[in-house]
Write a structure and sequence with these properties.
By secondary structure, the protein is α/β, with parallel strands linked by helices. The chain has helices at residues 24-36, 55-62, 82-95, 110-116, 129-150, 211-217, 228-244, 291-304, 317-334, 347-351, 359-363; strands at residues 11-15, 41-44, 70-76, 101-105, 176-179, 184-187, 200-204, 220-224, 253-261, 279-281, 284-288, 309-314. Strands 1-2-3-4-7-8-9-12 form an eight-stranded parallel β-barrel, surrounded by six helices. A two-stranded antiparallel sheet has the order 5-6. Helix 1 links the parallel strand 1 and strand 2 (41-44).
Length: 367
C-alpha cells in the first residue's frame, strides 16, 4: 500500500525510556500502548553512565506480553564481545518470534571500561577525534561479525540446512571466521539463526563519525534535525555511502529523531515548532505543541522525501505517548499515511526490509 502522495507508508518508532523506573511492568505498559498505535518498534536505552535495568533483559521479559511490535534495546558495543552480543540479541529474537533489533551505541565512560575489565573507553573530547573514529570503526566490525554469526546456523534450531532442508549436524554448521582488527573469531554460535534472518540494526547517525558505520551495517539510521532539508541531506549522504559499501540504499531506512512535548494539548505549536520545525536544545531537536500540528509536521517532512519516518521520544513518557497514539497516529491513519494494522509478524516486515540470505549456504563464501 502506498501513501496518497506516492511515497511509501511512513514508519514510526518510539522511545519508552523512563527516568528512575526499575519496574519492568511500567515499561511493559508503554510498549503495549505503542503497539496499540501500530508503531514499528520501540527503543529502550542503556548506558554504563547510570544504574538502570539492562535494556535487553527488560525487553526480553516484555516480549511475551506483546505480539507484533518490534523490540530494540540499546547495546553498548564498546565493551561487548560480538559473540555475546549475537547470542543475547538472537535470544530476544527467539522469544519475540522475529521482532528483535539492537541499537548500537558507544560508551564514553571510563567506569564502563573498568566494570568489564577491557580497554579504556573513547573520549568525547574533540582532541581525541581519532579515538571516536576508531571506536565507530570497531562498532562496524562488531555488527559485521554478528551478521556472520547469524548466517552460520540454520533457522530450525540449528538442525536443517536452509537451502536443501536436509538434516544438519553440529559439525556441519559453518564456523564464523572473521579477521577484523579487534575481533579475530572462529567458532559456532549457540543460538539458532533468527526467523527474520538478521535482527534489525539501528544506529544514531546524527554524529558524522557514526555515519560510516551506519552506512555499512545499519538497517535503520536515526538522524536528529530541526528541518527537513537538514535531515534529507544526511539521508542522501547515508544512501550514497551505503551504495559505496555495495549495499542497496533502499534497504536503509532513515528516521528523523525528535523529542516531543505534547503537554499543551491542542494549543498551536510554539514559535520555532510546528510547521516551522522543532527548536534545537541541548538535548537535541524538541517539538512542543499539540498532536494535530505534530501530525502535520510528520506528513510534511515525509512527503518532502526527507525521511522514511520518525523516531519520537516523549518528553513525558506516559502522557505524551498516549497523545501520540490517540491523536497524532490516529490523524496520520485517517489520511492514509500510516497503517492501521501490522501486515506481518517480524520487525523486518514492518519496515519493508528483505530477509537477508544466508551468505555461506547460498553463495558458498568461505566463513
Amino acid at each position: 500500500m502506498a501513501a496518497p502522495h506516492g511515497r511509501g507508508l511512513l514508519h514510526l518508532a518510539a522511545a519508552v525510556d523512563q527516568e528512575a523506573v526499575h519496574d519492568v511492568s511500567d515499561h511493559g505498559e508503554l510498549v503495549r500502548l505503542a503497539e496499540r498505535g501500530g508503531f514499528d518498534f520501540v527503543t529502550l536505552g542503556d548506558t554504563f553512565a547510570q544504574p538502570e535495568p539492562d535494556a535487553l533483559a527488560v525487553l526480553a521479559r516484555i516480549a511475551s506480553t506483546t505480539t507484533r511490535i518490534g523490540l530494540v534495546p540499546t547495546v553498548t558495543v564498546t565493551h561487548t564481545e560480538p559473540f555475546h552480543l549475537r547470542a543475547a540479541v538472537a535470544t530476544l529474537g527467539r522469544v519475540s518470534r522475529g521482532r528483535a533489533g539492537c541499537r548500537i551505541d558507544l560508551s564514553d565512560t571510563e567506569g564502563g571500561a573498568r566494570n568489564v575489565g577491557r580497554r579504556h573507553a573513547a573520549s568525547a573530547d574533540a582532541s581525541e577525534h581519532e579515538a571516536w573514529d576508531e571506536a565507530w570503526d570497531e562498532a562496524g566490525q562488531v555488527a559485521d561479525l554478528a551478521d556472520r554469526l547469524w548466517d552460520n546456523r540454520a533457522v530450525d534450531a540449528g538442525t536443517h540446512d536452509d537451502a536443501s532442508g536436509r538434516p544438519l549436524g553440529r559439525d556441519e554448521a559453518w564456523p564464523a571466521g572473521f579477521g577484523g582488527d579487534s575481533f579475530p573469531v572462529r567458532g559456532l554460535p549457540t543460538v539458532p539463526r533468527p526467523s527474520q534472518g538478521h535482527p534489525v540494526t539501528v544506529v544514531d547517525a546524527t554524529d558524522r563519525r557514526a555515519r560510516a558505520a551506519a552506512a555499512r551495517c545499519a538497517d535503520v539510521a536515526l538522524v536528529q534535525g530541526t528541518n527537513p532539508a537538514q535531515v534529507g541531506a544526511v539521508r542522501a549522504e547515508l544512501h550514497a555511502s551505503a551504495l559505496a559499501h555495495g549495499r542497496d540504499p533502499d534497504e536503509l531506512r532513515v528516521l528523523a529523531a525528535l523529542t516531543v512535548d505534547l503537554g499543551d494539548g491542542e494549543r498551536a505549536a510554539e514559535p520555532g515548532h510546528g510547521g516551522g520545525g522543532p527548536r534545537q536544545t541541548g538535548q537535541g531537536p524538541l517539538y512542543r505543541g499539540g498532536p494535530v500540528d505534530l501530525a502535520e509536521l510528520i506528513a510534511s517532512w515525509h512527503e518532502s522525501g526527507a525521511a522514511d519516518g520518525f523516531h519520537l521520544t516523549p518528553a513525558e513518557p506516559r502522557r505524551d505517548l498516549e497523545r501520540l497514539v490517540n491523536g497524532t497516529v490516529a490523524l496520520l491513519q485517517h489520511r492514509g499515511l500510516f497503517r492501521t494494522f501490522y501486515p506481518g509478524s517480524t520487525l523486518r516486515e514492518h519496515l519493508g526490509l528483505t530477509r537477508p540470505a544466508k551468505r555461506y549456504a547460498v553463495t558458498g563464501e568461505a566463513p
